[in-house]
From TrEMBL:
SUPFAM superfamilies: BAS1536-like. Pfam families: SpoOE-like. It comes from the Bacteria. This is Spo0E family sporulation regulatory protein-aspartic acid phosphatase.
């Protein structure tokens, strides 16, 4: 699975690098997105606010991860062509 290529986000700007040669990349990103969604939901339930700093930070990280996922899906489609 190439765990050496994985970087776990610890800040708003850190994202996992895209490696189009990794066949499990979309699955890994899907798991990361699901984890971030859960973390954001749990944080919202604790904070009772959509606009708290912690919820907003998780939302930004989730947005970055979803963008990364979409790029990877596009790369995968282009490799098939």
């Amino acid at each position: 699975m190439g765990s050496a290529n994985r970087i776990h986000p610890t800040s708003d700007h850190e994202v996992t690098p895209i490696d189009s040669h990794c066949p499990d990349r979309v699955a890994i990103l899907t798991e990361e997105i699901d984890r971030l969604r859960k973390e954001m939901t749990d944080t919202f339930l604790q904070e009772h606010s959509f606009v708290s700093d912690s919820v907003m930070a998780l939302s930004r990280r989730l947005d970055l991860k979803i963008n990364e996922y979409m790029k990877q899906v596009q790369l995968s489609r282009e490799e098939v062509r």
